[in-house]
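Need NAD-dependent epimerase/dehydratase domain-containing protein's 3D structure for a figure. Predict it.
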Amino acid sequence: KVVCVTGATGFIASRLVMILLNRGYTVKASVRDPSTVLIENLQRGAIKAVYPGRGSLWNGDPKKTQHLVSLRGAKERLHLFKADLLEEGSFDSVVDGCDGVFHTASPFYLDTKDPQAELIDPAVKGTLNVLNSCTKSSSVKRVVVTSSMAAVYNNVKPRTPAVDETWFSDPEFCKDSKMWYALSKTMAEEAAWNFAKEKGLDMVTINPSMVIGPLLQPTLNTSAAAILSLINGAKTFPNMSYGWVNVKDVANAHTQAFEVPSANGRYCMVESVTHLSEVVSILRELYPNLQLPERCEDENPHVPTFKVSKEKTRSLGIDYIRLKVSIKETVESLREKGFIH
Ligand code: NDP
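Structure prediction for NAD-dependent epimerase/dehydratase domain-containing protein:
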């Protein structure tokens, strides 16, 4: 079977590409870097064919795709395309001929100067652009969109007894709180569901919380940076509680959401919601020699944790990797890639 993964250079997408190749799929992967270094990938035989059309074969920076083209099965079954979220029709030829489409590409930054241009447009227009390409191709059976818990629990409802898939973030709440990334994901998911309903597209969303675990890509992504920020000499940690989940579980859930015929709707993915004080304690226990922050940056009571239902993702066969293991895998990986001094 042939599948497409958008934003293949990313943290989650790289792991997803790896799993898909391991499962025998042919993967058409989109990347956006416009630089024109390459040739190397072609020479290595990592790319076999040049595809016509707008989503043309990508000849970009080999450093950003080296980890992908080195994956087992890549030489035979991975095809890289250049496609831009904001360019209409850009994904037509990437998606064409695919049974399944995994749309993961979306900017994940917390600092932004221009939320509309940097986050909201690529998230919302990009998602609609990809979904629109899917409707043009008769081969596409299902689309799996990487949404986020940011599109689930950012509203004023009390988070008891547990947050679940029936929850939706409130765009006004996100706007008022200046949570621009959360707003981008909330608006993108809402637009996606409206589009899918209108066009009769079989769509499933995966809604993970902070994703950690081993990195495949050479660059540092925002959620792994949340762990790194506790390690490189910070004196304090923010008064924050986050939901955490391992990238291997998230990537597996994506493939399951495509492969399990009865998969439907949304899937919240949180192993546990844990305050950073507890994350620091786990780090201290695992790595007594690391220089870790000693106290919270403010004196207020700790931001409370809450529960997120695991029932629906269990129906996909996900048995969550425990947070302590995920933290350990993240640190080992950050160390191996030279991010920890
Ligand atoms: P990464 O930053 O590692 O990857 C993001 C991907 O999106 C990259 O391939 C990036 O391409 C691509 N991208 C970003 N902006 C654009 C743009 N304007 N045009 C085209 N491509 C773009 O992030 P993650 O792997 O962490 O995130 C992947 C998806 O998962 C996103 O949809 C994110 O919202 C979602 N998610 C992530 C969570 C996490 O904790 N990591 C939690 C919940 C959801 P390039 O390499 O060229 O920059």
